């Protein structure tokens, strides 16, 4: 019964965020919030200051919805806001609400971190990751806020591992995969196991050598070149007679940079490149320069090629 209610609320909230609800459905959401508020009780001891919690939850809901719309039924302060989390996929529990959130940030080099469940996250340069100090709920939830990462998720069938990255949600039980997040798109590339990716009512299931591409509000499943189905953060890579385009793609993922080419026809040139796992970007660019005679001019995170 609870699952059916949760599913219905999620569906209605998603429709409402896209301005797809009817007047009757909007009234239903509004009446639900008002009714729950009028019949709820607040416990300061276990739940904290109601005004402060209400403000934080409201801002979180607005952020989750992409701030696309103002919801009149969110005005009913803390109690209604907390119960509204049911519709957003959260079941309120004091212990879960008190999970201490940590951030993991990289600058000009990739780094790795091990989470409390044993999962390992390899973060590319110029990336930002958020996670709880300890997983306490029924689900293991984390967020990739910026950049790229490789995930080696510890198996736990009872506690799904969920990553929010931009507007997409990646759900697994225990597997390995890449997530590449930029302003215009998000990609999930599967290395081992099975992965579910969803966004805005769309969902795809992936297996190794497949990726999900979310761009322009569309989620698409695509095949992946074998060169990308490895953990290049922990492994030396030898790319034999590979197009320069494929080499550049890996460098962009690993170092969090963007390449701009004066002549894009050079991207089809075959090259053989060795990328050591701890190599600096500068050393790899020198290697490519020696092979192709291309010149690389670095401007912060943008590399112009001519």
Overall pLDDT level: 80
The amount of beta strand, in percent, is 25-35%
What is the share of helical residues? 25-40%
* Count of strand segments: 18
**CATH architecture type of the largest domain:** Sandwich
Under CATH at level 1, the class of the largest domain stands as Mainly Beta
* N-C termini distance: 62 Å
Question: How many separate structural domains?
Answer: 3
Radius of gyration, in Å, reads 22 Å
Catalogue the unreliable spans.
73-79, 85-96
- CATH fold-level assignment of the largest domain: Jelly Rolls
| Series of H and E elements | HHHHHHEEEEEEEEEEEEEEHEEHEE
- Supply the helix-strand structural class: alpha+beta
**Largest sheet: number of strands, sense, barrel closure:** 13 strands, mixed
- Helical segment tally? 8
Q: Specify the overall morphology.
A: elongated
Key features of this structure:
Jelly Rolls; three-stranded mixed β-sheet; 8 helices; alpha+beta; 306 residues; Phage tail protein beta-alpha-beta fold; 13-stranded mixed β-sheet
Describe this structure in words.
By secondary structure, the protein is an alpha+beta fold. The chain has three domains: 2-96, no CATH class; 99-228, Jelly Rolls, CATH 2.60.120.1440; 237-305, Phage tail protein beta-alpha-beta fold (3-Layer(bab) Sandwich), CATH 3.55.50.30. Helix content is 28%, strand content 33%. The chain is built from eight helices and 18 strands. The strands form three sheets. Strands 1, 2, 3, 4, 5, 6, 7, 8, 9, 10, 11, 12 and 13 form a 13-stranded mixed sheet that branches. Strands 15-18-17 form a three-stranded mixed sheet, with no helix packed on it. It has a two-stranded antiparallel sheet with strand order 14-16. A hairpin with a 2-residue loop joins strand 12 and strand 13. 25% of the residues are buried.
